[in-house]
Every structure is written in C-alpha cells, then in structure tokens.
C-alpha cells in the first residue's frame, strides 16, 4: 500500500484487510512524507503485521511518478510469495484475499472486478469491468489502460522482470500488466472483490474522461512503448 495524507479513509481500508490475513502475512505501507495523521492512525491499530516504510519522496517530472515510486518502495520490501496491491482509500470485501490467491495458483498476475463507490462508499456502479469494457494484454492496455492496480495481485516472481520500474511516465499498474503479459500469464476475475472509491482526491483518471489532449496521449504512449521495448530487448 502506497500512502500519502490518507487519514480520512485509511483506517477503514486496513480494517477491511486485516481480518483476511494470516498471522504470518504482512501489510507493507510505504508513506510518501504524509503531513497529516495517517501514520498515527496506522500505529493506533497496534497490529504487528503492519510494516511502515518512510519513502524519501523526490521531485518528479510527471504527476503519476509519485505513486509509482512509492509503490516501488513498498514492493522492494514485500516478503510474501503472493502480493496484492491496495490503495489507501478503498474497501476490500470479505474473501478477497482467498479468491485472489486461489486464482494465482494458475497465473502470475490477476485483476479482479470491483464495485465503484462514491466518497461515502455508496455503490454507483455494480461493475468496473462493464463500465470500461476491460481487456487483457499489452497492446490494448497501451491504447487504453483499463486494469486497476488496486485490484491486482501477482506472484513474487513477476518482480524479477518488473523491477526497477521505468524512470518516469509509466504507471506501476500498467507496467506490471505489460511485464506479466509478455513473460508470464494473467487473468481477470469477473466478480467484484472490493469497492473502488471515487472522490475528488483520487490520483488516477480510471473510469473517468481523460483531461489530456490527443497529442499528449500519443506522446505518452510512445514513451511507454520505448520503455517496454527497452526492457524486453535490452533489459534496461
């Protein structure tokens, strides 16, 4: 879990996750220099399975690079064989962890559907997949990314191909999908396993109209492809 100033929602999210974990499981939280009460709330839960990392946030040239670098820090310190990504402001439904791990017995990366909720978690859409017409694979997600990082789980072996993340402009979730699609196998779970909270502070534009121009989108995708071919052809 990558966090930054998440005091409003993080307690509820953690309380939806912790009951699903075993005694030897962990929640790795990478904090991007929050200046609110996020870490106080986390510590007040007094759960030894929660491990807090302090990420030394550096200025980034692209807005999404902040969350990508923060997630990268968390992933470098994750010790489990199965890794599930989490946002700080969503809600996991009971049984999510077991269902994801079950699916990961046969694939390296999986992405579940989710309900879309408003700021108060009132359900505004029963299926994110149906709303965006989700698809798998490298090329279609480069054209339009539809797979949410907060709904992803993968086996540890994926990190050997995915890390380090590209230096800039490539979201961590898209990059994981691209590496999993190229080197391994992936799947989608067509049942909602969480509530994806949409609110004014949400970083990504997933499920919403993009504010970027056509030429920005073209240039952005060219950069993504450059990073992709650099990794698979030259290991950079």
Largest sheet: 6 strands, mixed
User: Helicity, in percent?
Assistant: 25-40%
Distance between the termini: 26 Å
How much of the residues is beta strand, in percent? 15-25%
Given this structure, which CATH class is correct? Alpha Beta
Q: Could you state the CATH homologous superfamily?
A: Spore Coat Polysaccharide Biosynthesis Protein SpsA, Chain A
Which H/E pattern describes the elements? EHEHEHEEHEEHHEHHEH
What is the mean predicted local confidence, pLDDT?
93
Number of domains: 1
List unreliable stretches of 5+ residues. Answer: none
CATH topology: Spore Coat Polysaccharide Biosynthesis Protein SpsA, Chain A
Instruction: Give the C-alpha Rg.
Output: 17 Å
Can you tell me the overall shape? globular
Helix-strand makeup class? alpha/beta
**Tally of individual helices:** 9
Structure description:
- With about 240 residues, the chain is α/β, with parallel strands linked by helices.
- Helices cover about 35% and strands about 20% of the residues.
- The model has no long low-confidence stretch (mean pLDDT about 95).
Describe this protein with a few key phrases.
single chain, 236 residues, alpha/beta, Spore Coat Polysaccharide Biosynthesis Protein SpsA, Chain A, six-stranded mixed β-sheet, three-stranded parallel β-sheet, 9 helices, 9 strands, 19% strand
